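Record 1 of the preview.
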Amino acid sequence: MTFGRIQLLAGLSALALIGLGACGSAANNAAETTDTAPAESLAPMPTVTPNAAPIESAHPNSIQPETTLSISAEGTVNREPDIAFLNTGVQTQGKTAEEAMGANRSAMNGVFSALKAAKISDKDMQTSNFSLQPQYDYSNRQNGEPPRLTGYTASNQLTVKVRNLANLGETMDALVGAGGNTFSGLSFALEDDRAARNEARDLAMREATSRAELYAKASGYKVARIVTISEGGNFRPQPMAMMSRSMDMAESTPIAGGEVGYSVTVNVVFELRQ
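->
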């Protein structure tokens, strides 16, 4: 009995060893097959269909280029100005630099006094340019002679903000009477132009949206949403040809303020859908 039991156990052990060997051989064969198999058998190539419809995307910002419409629109607002910028100053000459500077200093003191009398505050006056230049005579030169120094020119320029436009002409006359002899520019503006600029923005967006609706309707689409908005334009007041009123005094230089225009341009990209 004992001998038979030992013999049976030995037989079972032999069978187990044979099974393990078979499994090992199968695993090795599978590994060899995997190592030598071509890459194409692992992931089949997708089929490409010519002129196929694009694959739809679930991304909320996904759009097709052919469904966009780019529009640039401008909005302009005209307003009657309430301030003016006057570029004025004094230009003097002298045989020497000291003489030219002395004459200029004397005349500029008169200009500042006139501005004070016109109730222009110090914060509304700013020196915009100052120069002292030699003057030469280039005529009648012979044998390469250098030009002849004839004197010096001193120039002092001011930018003045005038808040009382009704007295603008009178202020200009007072400046000339006090020694001012140069006027290089006069412009008008609004003291606070934020409301005008915002109204111009609103008009520009309304124009862009209206044109987008027109194009969409004509092409069988509907405006779905706005993709991007960018703003451009110059907010500096631009003089208009139309004149609102004349600010002339009885014995002063007549000045017409007219209107100033504030413009803004918006560039908008719309998405269209059927």
